[in-house]
Design goal:
The complex is a heterodimer of chains A (about 160) and B (about 675).
Chain A (H helix, E strand, L loop, with lengths): L1 H17 L9 H5 L18 H15 L4 H12 L14 H43 L1 H22 L2
Helix pairs in contact in A: 1-5
Chain B lengths: L1 H28 L2 H30 L6 H6 L6 H6 L5 H22 L8 H22 L23 H16 L1 H13 L5 H31 L10 H26 L3 H24 L14 H26 L11 H33 L7 H21 L10 H24 L5 H32 L3 H11 L1 H25 L2 E7 L4 E4 L2 E13 L2 E12 L4 E5 L2 E5 L2 E8 L1 E3 L4 E10 L5 E9 L2 H18 L3 H15 L3 H8 L1
Antiparallel strand pairs in B: 1-10, 2-3, 3-4, 4-5, 4-6, 6-7, 8-9, 9-10
Classes of the chains: A mainly alpha (about 160), B alpha+beta (about 675).
């Protein structure tokens, strides 16, 4: 079971990682989305219209024109401002926990829920067998009563479901 | 008047503490006179908090700038509309609004429990008053809205210019109705735990309260999104900001609760789970208030640094601790016979829906708090922004949309193969055909294609369910289809209200997918007469106009919009507004050509003395469906919220069953 959970977690994480758009041609806007403006607005550069954001845009443009790639440009800004300039945690080291934990939690929850539901289904089946055994012993009166109960229940359901 | 307000707050605080204690004492000791006194105390608390609120409003409207809060957030030139909204512009006033709303809700609960829930109502009232006392304590001792300055300034500083938008009126108030509203179901759940009356009664009593809070929290978020879209000038409506996240989390867990209570009501299962869910939802409401006010996380919405953080943290821990202890104590009484007929049943589907909703709430909470975790563990400040939430919550929310389609198709208890084939066939076919058509017309972005396909699938399930209901009614009553449809909805408001809500969410998903995956943006510096093209639009810059308004200077650009064949469409005037008290931070006034297919969104970024100006132009496809879907969702919530005669009759049947009355007669009478 542990192995299944681990495999499921890795698969889910890999799927999540694949969500990252693969840019054939990096544009200024692609990089703007990955950087936070440093004017204190708490917005990504792409969304901010302040002078600081414009300066960052100019630097990105200049560096792209100079042949720099996205990775290099992001590294430059991290060197300038620290890791907080990136709009999302990097996918390495301790930061990986930020990416993995939500999917791992959902996957673990799904496995746990499946197991609980299975137990409840087994409990339901056991109870049904118990009731049937008791019904066979009780004879025809019980059968009559059960039919009446079924009729009442059907009426109640009808009241609940049929518009 | 402000002195009167301050005294009223102190009296209200003392009274709320008295009611909290007296109500429980009276219930435990069987002292009817004390109980009557406590109930009257609730009325007095509401009256005194209303008096204090009226005093603050009076101070704002009469420009009593000696009151520091009035000086900070209002000014003489503000219209009455914005003067009223400055009531909740700062920490002090918004906390008073919290306290006032809760005191009114306490009063409503008091009226509702005159005849029913008499056993648990003293505890419900007591818990509401404990929360009330906490907020009153804050406004009396920590953030006094009536604090006076020594001198009398001639004018106030006025609102932050970004707050001068109709959204300022509707966004905080609706959000607060949601946050505060969740106190009531929490109080009922806790009272049920304390008294041991753990049947379905507390659930039935709180269904509409939960729906009310959920609806307003959703509406508050919608108003906030709309406000951001038109006021902040960045072309988006949701930035995954910590404060936005804080309001999304209780909405998600509240949604889970609204679904899982159905299982308890039908099958008597999940008693513990439902209490946990409502406790979490209330705790997240308090966490949201903490994040907005403490300044522990950077946010565009926050009220700035304050000393409120430790109080909220303490209160949050107290809530969680007391709830957990009470729950553990009552676990033996909450054991229910958890039995399922089949794994493939609506009960299972609802539980997976709960898992996904909680997963989304957890992912949002984890991402919101991760900067603090990172700083604590690594000592490094990092940011968790939109790319993280889009990548993590995106797949989770996709699963949620899928489940929204699947749940109504699976029957309660057990779904037979025939039932599954019959129910899934048409929606699945519609989804497949729809995706092929979308692909054929050029929708190739894989996530957009998945979302649109799921939306078609879910919308088809809803329409088929409604059609079946209408057809059934048409056959049984002979009503024509147009008459049968509203009659059908009216006869079972919770069910069809729920379908309308789902339809609204689908429309919103279409808006989100369209504008997220297909938005186009172009920036440029233009001289007079220059043009810039984006998609099928050609925008020609005609020059700048500058004009003063009361305490503002507006610089507006004129852009003639034509299609690429030269046909005139409209003229847009994006602008920058310089406010007298905030010259250094001009606000962006975007101009938008709206439409159901796409919106042309124009932003004036800046200009030079020679009138060259820089613009950002965005084409946002389908964004209007986000607001339309939101409206549909609120309409559905309203339908589901209305009193339901069938629910009342079901309650009568249940009551009759418990006291041994002939249920058959009631049912026969009904049918």
């Amino acid at each position: 079971m542990k192995r299944s959970i681990a495999v499921l977690t890795v698969v889910v994480f890999l799927l999540a990682v694949r969500v990252v758009p693969a840019y054939a041609d990096t544009t200024v806007r692609d990089i703007e989305k990955e950087l936070m403006c440093q004017c204190g607005c708490t917005m990504i550069v792409e969304a901010c219209t302040c002078g600081t954001a414009d300066q960052i845009r100019d630097v990105i443009k200049t560096k792209l024109e100079g042949g720099a790639d996205k990775k290099g440009i992001l590294a430059y800004f991290v060197g300038q401002y620290g890791e907080r300039v990136l709009s999302a945690p990097t996918k390495k080291g301790f930061n990986l926990t930020a990416w993995i934990l939500p999917f791992a939690a959902v996957a673990a929850g799904a496995v746990g829920l499946y197991l609980i539901l299975r137990i409840w289904v087994l409990q339901g089946a056991a109870r049904k067998v118990e009731l049937e055994a008791a019904g066979a012993e009780a004879g025809e009166d019980t059968e009559l009563y059960r039919q009446r109960l079924a009729t009442e229940f059907a009426k109640y359901q009808e009241m609940d479901e049929v518009p | 008047m402000t002195e009167l307000g301050r005294v009223a707050l102190i009296v209200a605080l003392a009274l709320s503490v008295y009611v909290a204690i007296a109500s429980v004492t009276a219930a435990r000791s069987g002292l009817p006179k004390l109980l009557v006194s406590a109930r009257r105390g609730v009325i007095a608390v509401a009256a005194f908090v209303t008096l204090a609120s009226a005093a603050l409003l009076y101070a704002i409207l009469t420009h009593d700038f000696q009151v520091h809060y009035v000086y900070q957030y209002s000014s003489r030139e503000m219209s009455v509309f914005y003067l009223v909204s400055s009531f909740w512009a700062g920490n002090e006033g918004s906390l008073l609004l919290w306290a006032w709303l809760l005191s009114v809700f306490g009063l409503i609960v008091l009226l509702q429990t005159r005849r029913e829930n008499r056993e648990i109502s003293p505890y419900v009232v007591s818990i509401i008053m404990v929360v009330e006392a906490f907020f009153l304590m804050l406004v009396v001792f920590v953030t006094d809205p009536f604090k006076r300055s020594i001198g009398i300034p001639p004018d106030g500083q006025g609102l932050n210019p970004l707050l001068e938008n109709p959204g300022m009126f509707f966004h905080p108030t609706t959000l607060y109705l949601g946050y505060v509203g969740f106190t009531v179901p929490f109080a009922f759940a806790t009272a049920a735990l304390i008294t041991g009356r753990l049947g379905d009664q507390w659930l039935r009593s709180t269904r509409r309260w939960t729906l009310f809070a959920w609806m307003f929290l959703g509406l508050g978020n919608l108003f906030g999104g709309q406000w951001a879209y038109v006021e902040l000038g960045w072309g988006g409506w949701w930035a995954w900001d910590p404060v936005e996240n804080a309001s999304a989390m209780p909405w998600l867990t509240g949604t889970a609760y609204l679904h899982s209570v159905m299982i308890q009501q039908r099958r008597g299962m999940l008693k513990v789970w439902n209490i946990v869910l409502i406790d979490i939802t209330f705790a997240l409401s308090i966490l949201g208030t903490l994040l907005t006010r403490s300044g522990i996380l950077s946010s565009v919405h926050s009220f700035g640094l304050s000393n409120l953080g430790p109080f909220f943290v303490g209160f949050l821990l107290l809530i969680l601790f007391v709830s957990a202890i009470r729950l553990i104590q009552r676990l033996p009484n909450l054991r229910s016979s958890n039995e399922l007929d089949s794994l493939v049943s609506r009960e299972s589907a609802f539980l997976f829906n709960n898992l996904i909703l909680l997963g989304a709430a957890f992912a949002t909470l984890w991402g919101t708090l991760f900067p603090l975790v990172s700083e604590a563990v690594r000592g490094v400040k990092i940011t968790v922004g939109p790319p993280f939430f889009n990548q993590v919550n995106g797949p989770i929310l996709l699963a949620l949309i899928l489940l929204m389609g699947i749940c109504p198709l699976i029957g309660w208890r057990r779904a037979s193969t025939d039932n599954l084939v019959r129910n899934f066939l048409y929606p699945a076919m519609a989804g497949i055909i729809g995706s092929i058509l979308l692909y054929a017309v050029g929708i190739r972005q894989k996530y957009a294609l998945i979302i649109f396909t799921l939306c078609i699938f879910v919308a088809t399930t809803i329409l088929i369910e409604v059609y079946r209901g209408v057809r059934s009614r048409h056959r049984s009553t002979g009503e024509n289809y147009l008459v049968a449809l509203p009659a059908l909805v009216w006869r079972n408001k919770p069910r069809y209200g729920g379908y309308i809500i789902h339809l609204g969410i689908i429309l919103m998903a279409v808006g989100v997918a369209g504008s997220t995956f297909y938005d186009t943006e172009v920036s440029g510096v233009l001289s007079k007469g220059d043009s810039i093209s984006i998609k099928n639009y050609v925008l020609t810059y005609n020059g700048l106009t500058s004009y003063p308004t009361a305490k503002r200077d507006v610089v507006s650009a004129s852009l003639t919009v034509k299609d690429n064949k030269g046909k005139y469409i409209t003229t847009l005037n994006p602008a920058k507004t310089f406010h007298e008290n905030h010259q250094e931070t001009p606000t962006t006034s975007v101009d938008i050509k709206t439409g159901p297919i796409e919106e042309l969104y124009t932003i004036l970024n800046g200009w030079e003395t020679d009138e060259t100006a820089s613009f950002k132009i965005i084409v946002n496809p389908l964004v209007q469906w986000l607001w339309i879907g939101g409206g549909v969702m609120v309409f559905g919530s309203f339908i589901a919220f209305l009193p339901d005669a069938r629910e009342r009759r079901r309650a009568e049947v249940r009551e009759a069953m418990t006291v041994g009355l002939p249920v058959r007669e009631l049912v026969a009478h009904e049918t």
